[in-house]
Amino acid sequence: MKLQQLRYIWEVAHHDLNVSATAQSLYTSQPGISKQIRLLEDELGVEIFSRSGKHLTRITPAGEAILRTAGEILRKVESIKQVAQEFSNERKGSLSIATTHTQARYALPNVIEEFIDKYPDVSLHMHQGTPMQISEMAADGSVDFAIATEALDLFSDLIMLPCYRWNRCILVPRSHPLAQLSTLTLEDVAKHPIVTYVFGFTGRSKLDEAFMQRGLAPRVVFTAADADVIKTYVRLGLGIGIVAKMAYDPEIDSDLVALDASHLFGASTTKLGFRRGTFLRGFMYEFIEALAPHLTKEVVSDAFNCHSKVELDELFSNIQLPEY
């Protein structure tokens, strides 16, 4: 059994069983990958992939178990490389982040700009997706960090660090009736068609909970993952927009009014998650602290030593999170 063979089966499984695409991504030949997979299967005495002719069709039950262990081995190998890099050149390496559009567009630019300025030799990679996709990427080791508001809690393999709290605003044209009210209620909001985030994105669950608790059925006419898209359709008159307050720019969005909605909806917490056992290099600790100053290296190290969510929650119970 060779490490290269484990890499091949892992990559094939994560390229939708497309050996040709895998070969392109690894800069090698398709026949070479197919041969090595066959050699590994012959050595193990089981099929990892089912086939129809020359095409791989699915991962076998044995293959699922083998791939889980292969993933662990490959992550350990990557950790060994990270340790070596930290001691050979602490200012050089790579950092991969998965996050949503809202975080990438509004919360991260300043952090990333400062990080790149300080660590020009660190290659930074950003992946965008749904909160579930982001969490899965962190859980399987495809990325170093996941930054999101939803879904991270569903993955027990992740250590989740609370970064900041935020709330929402309601966007309307300046001439809209809601802009004339001195006090905004959920009942006022529910009277109008709503344009907001897709369920599972950017704290959408808090919005739905608030209406449900008041026995209201909001008329959501359009959803999107992107706050800029939501603002576009508010401008078209499709409905009132409910977005993260950080997504409103007084200069760029001067044609819209942002009505504070923090008294209507519970605050959401954005968290940074990474897989247990991850070796964090010095610049990774610095990135975390730049994103959330209360997450010092000492605090993050303490989080590593927590063995349950209860312990982790207790660690952060006395820490006042910043408001975004």
Give the overall shape.
globular
Report the helical percentage: 40-55%
How many angstroms does the end-to-end distance come to?
50 Å
Return the average pLDDT rounded to an integer: 90
> In DSSP terms, counting alpha (H) and pi (I) runs of 4 or more, how many helices?
13
> Strand count, sense and closure of the main sheet?
5 strands, mixed
Count of individual beta strands: 12
Beta-strand percentage?
15-25%
Strand order of the largest sheet: 4-3-5-12-6
- Category by helix and strand content: alpha/beta
Tell me the series of helices and strands, N- to C-terminal.
HHHEEHEHHEHEEEHEHEHEEEHHH
Unreliable residue stretches: none
Rg value: 23 Å
How would you describe this protein?
By secondary structure, the protein is of the alpha/beta class. The protein is built from 13 helices and twelve strands. It has helices spanning 3-13, 19-26, 30-44, 61-88, 101-107, 109-118, 131-139, 186-190, 204-213, 227-235, 282-291, 297-304, 309-316; strands at residues 49-52, 55-59, 93-99, 122-128, 145-148, 158-166, 168-173, 194-197, 220-224, 240-244, 256-260, 268-275. The longest helix is centred in the N-terminal third of the chain and has 28 residues, at 61-88.
